[in-house]
């Protein structure tokens, strides 16, 4: 049957609409996924102990009857919220609730713990008497995340930029006063590590955050942040050179000019000297830096991962799998890193690690969910 010109026009219009729909879905799906993941995370993990305060629940299986707050998760919560605000899915009040909770749970130092700092106490939880306990001591990674979130907030809400920058500077000063080792030029793992501590020369590899360090250097004008950046990248590079894999351990002992992995159970687990639950964040921490040393360390790691049939939740530094299962908290940082380095030879990882978005965000694992949301917000663009 011969079709007349009107039929062809109609067919053409249908085809154009269909093609347009496919293009629209392709372009908007990442945005829908980002928004859905953020909102699912916020509804599942963010708790409000007071109307003007928020924290991220890190308890096992996300138990809302016995929640646990960490300074690490507070920093993540603030970073995620300001990123969501940039996309129009969160507002300044959402962010300020996290700020208020942090300010209400600052750590004290001194012989009698008489001096209040801007560092956050590392953990809060209900004790057996159902009292909300504020544990002493700080954790450096959480404090650095919070400082970076405040720097981003100053750009996001310029009317209150002075307030956020002031808080960031105060926090920065305390990080460099109480969480910095001037002998090694690196950050310690918390304010509990003093000169007479056996952990004085301990470095957590996931605390190497060159992009954040340089942001704080510019914001504060304090040259020590440049020292921290150069020193910690040098030590990370030392660790990267030890094995053909380029993998780095959760923790390392460092001096002014060298680094070596710690032994098992030196700090917390038998995997302390392996690429495990802390080091898995390293690709994410290095991803946005243009520093040649950071890029070299990252590319060596990505090269190793790109030759793996599938990526599991932990490796020895020589590349032996520690477990057989996969984990989003290991895959999300790799996806995040590769998303910032497309076309550099690791795009197979971009495709393979997208599995973390193929199923609903977990409601039972704070770490997996949080790192996945961070990867979605900055990697699915």
From TrEMBL:
Residue intervals passing through the bilayer: 6-27
| Keyword annotations of the record | Glycosidase, Hydrolase, Membrane, Transmembrane, Transmembrane helix
**Database matches in Pfam families:** Glyco_hydro_8
Q: Give a GO biological-process term.
A: carbohydrate metabolic process
Single GO MF annotation: hydrolase activity, hydrolyzing O-glycosyl compounds
Q: InterPro entries this protein is in?
A: 6-hairpin_glycosidase_sf, 6hp_glycosidase-like_sf, Glyco_hydro_8
Family that this chain belongs to: Belongs to the glycosyl hydrolase 8 (cellulase D) family.
What protein name applies here? Glycosyl hydrolase family 8
**Organism field:** Limosilactobacillus mucosae (Lactobacillus mucosae)
């Amino acid at each position: 049957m011969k079709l007349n010109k009107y039929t062809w026009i109609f067919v053409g219009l249908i085809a154009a609409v269909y093609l347009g729909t496919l293009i629209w879905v392709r372009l908007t799906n990442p945005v829908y996924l980002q928004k859905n993941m953020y909102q699912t995370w916020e509804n599942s993990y963010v708790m409000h102990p007071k109307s003007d305060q928020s924290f991220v629940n890190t308890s096992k299986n996300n138990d809302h009857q016995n929640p646990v707050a960490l300074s690490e998760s507070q920093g993540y919560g603030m970073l995620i919220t300001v990123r969501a605000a940039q996309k129009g899915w969160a507002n300044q009040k959402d962010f300020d609730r996290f700020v208020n909770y942090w300010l209400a749970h600052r750590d004290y130092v001194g012989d009698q713990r008489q001096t209040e700092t801007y560092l956050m106490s590392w953990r809060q939880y209900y004790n057996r008497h159902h009292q909300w306990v504020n544990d002493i001591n700080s954790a450096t990674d959480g404090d650095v995340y919070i400082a970076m979130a405040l720097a981003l907030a100053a750009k996001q809400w310029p009317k209150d930029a002075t307030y956020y920058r002031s808080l960031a500077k105060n926090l920065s000063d305390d990080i460099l006063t109480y969480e910095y080792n001037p002998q090694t030029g690196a950050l310690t793992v918390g304010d509990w590590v003093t000169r007479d501590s056996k952990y004085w020369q301990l470095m957590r590899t996931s605390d190497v955050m060159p992009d954040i360090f340089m942001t704080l250097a510019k914001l504060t004008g304090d040259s020590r942040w440049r020292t921290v950046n150069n020193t910690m990248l040098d030590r990370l590079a030392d660790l990267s050179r030890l094995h053909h894999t380029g993998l780095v351990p959760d923790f390392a002992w460092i001096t002014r000019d060298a680094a070596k992995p710690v032994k098992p159970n030196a700090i917390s687990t038998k995997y302390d000297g392996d690429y495990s639950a802390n080091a898995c964040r390293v690709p994410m921490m290095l991803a946005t830096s243009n520093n040649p040393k950071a890029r070299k360390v990252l590319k060596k790691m990505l090269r190793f991962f790109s030759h793996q049939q599938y990526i599991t939740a932990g490796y020895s530094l020589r590349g032996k799998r520690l477990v057989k299962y996969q984990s989003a908290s290991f895959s999300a940082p790799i996806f995040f890193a590769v998303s910032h380095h497309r076309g550099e030879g690791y795009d197979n990882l971009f495709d393979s690690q997208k599995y973390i978005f193929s199923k609903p965000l977990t409601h039972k694992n704070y770490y997996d969910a949080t790192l996945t949301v961070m990867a979605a917000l900055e990697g699915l663009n």
